[in-house]
Amino acid sequence: MKKLLILTASMLALSAGGAHAQMVQTSEITQAGVSNDATVNQAGGDEGVSDIDQTGDDNEASVTQEDGPAASSMFNVPANISDIDQVGNNQSATVVQNGEPANGDSNVSTITQTATGPNLTAGGFAAEAVVAQGGEGNVGTILQSASGNYAYADQFGSDNTSMIDQFGNNNIATLNEQGNSGGGLGESDNDSTILQGGDNNLAEVDQDGSGNTSIIDQDGSDNEARIMDQNGDNNFSTILQSGSNNDALVDDQNGDGNNSSINQEGTDGDADVSQDGDNNVSTIDQTNDGAIAVVNQGGNNNLSDINQGNGAGNFPDTEAYVTQDGDDSFSYVDQVSRESVATVNQTVGSSSNTSDIDQLLGSLRATATVTQNGSNGLSTILQERDGGPPNMEGMTATVTQSGDGAESSITQRDAGASATVTQDGDSLSTILQIGADGIIANGNTAMVDQIGDLTSSMISQNGESNSATVDQQGDMLMSSIDQLGSGHAATVTQTGFSNSSTILQSDMNNTANVTQAMNGNTSMVTQSGDGHLATVNQTTASNASTVTQSGSGNTATVTQ
Fold first, then answer.
1. What's the angle, vertex CA 255, arms to CA 254 and CA 260, rounded to 5?
2. How far from 364 is each of 284, 333, 357, 395, CA to CA, in Å?
3. Domain boundaries, the chain
4. 481, 503 Cβ separation under 8 angstroms
5. How wide is the angle at C-alpha 492 spanned by C-alphas 487 and 498, nearest 5°?
6. Please, which residues bridge with residue 221 across strands?
7. What are the distances in angstroms from CA 61 to CA 40, 50, 119, 368, 416?
8. In the chain, at which end, N or C, are there fewer CB atoms within 10 A of the end residue's CB?
């Protein structure tokens, strides 16, 4: 049976006294097919317009329009405008508009659905769309094709704009836009866009405040994207996903002027961003196969940029975690590698810290961890496997800096390398581990522990199976270790003030131990050949020692 219900028609009425003119609501319904149901409820008597056009069978359309008292003086300005166009069978569209156009701006809602096929929504419809608007100047548009799609848009405030376009099967999209943080009516100007192509995708947007922008664009299947709790003003979030089984979440972006962007291509990507503060920027670009990135920024003016994988060489399984609590900190992570993990934590209350981690093509199982306590810290780690058999594994770099102005630089180009730096104060540590003559080497280890100010340590390892350990406690201490070849061991322990140690080792299996205390000591150890042992102990002030060994199997001991 065909149902046709028109509750109001276009007409012009005069008020009892004739002083005010009032435009009565207008509704137009056109239906074709069998068992279509259209309901329009227009209350308030002030400039409402509704148009419903249904073609097919068993479609349902419902429009409720209510406008506030301010609309009665606007005469020919519509308070609410709704247009529903459904083609196909068994579709449902619902619009609820509560307009209050004090400034002459109308709420506008457009729903267009074209559904075919047997797919059904949870409500049992081939397609389902709902728009709810409260306030003025809101624009909500839902366009859906194919079947089994569900779209819901809720707008409250003024001048909010939303667009949902789903052109696949069994997709779900929901968005909620609220004016003024806390749900108030005032100037809002929020903008949300959800575009979904493919099947079985899920998108959610929830933003509260003014001037916020959210964009979700998904193309593929079984992807999930959520922008939740974007609270404040002038925040911007973008999620772009293509492929399948990707999951992206922007959660608790609280404050003003925050910017978050997630771009995932491929399969099984997972990215989460949470920003609390003002003017924070997070950018994640993943070419997936298991890439995971988690960013949590608290404070103001922080920047985190994560770029994982380019698809070359089939190197999946990269993960990156960044947490910044404080202001004006920067973290960059770039990984193109198998099983690489980078963790950066730049601690509560710190400011102006910078961490840069690059784990490049072939750095199998490379792990880099940076923790900075204090301000103005700088840490740079580059781990790069360049050649060698494909099953080479290793590379671990850990940097912990506590205090202000600490700087650490680690470069590792050979598999199996390990570097650890711990600094407390205004110190500088540099570690270079490189295979000799471009050959990928194994087993280099370097450890640096510094406490004090204006203290520096330089370790260069070019070869394999070399070890270097530096322990510095004091001010203006300097240690330099240069190892070329294999099997070398160097240990430097410095306390006091203004002590200097230099160790140069070449060829193979040489050992040097230097201990300096008090002030103003200088030690130079040079070893070439193999099997040498040099020991220097300086426990009084202002001593100078030079040890040079060549050949093989020499032993030297200096005590000052």
1. 70
2. 22, 16, 15, 8
3. 1-211, 228-301
4. yes
5. 150
6. 199, 244
7. 8, 11, 19, 57, 66
8. N
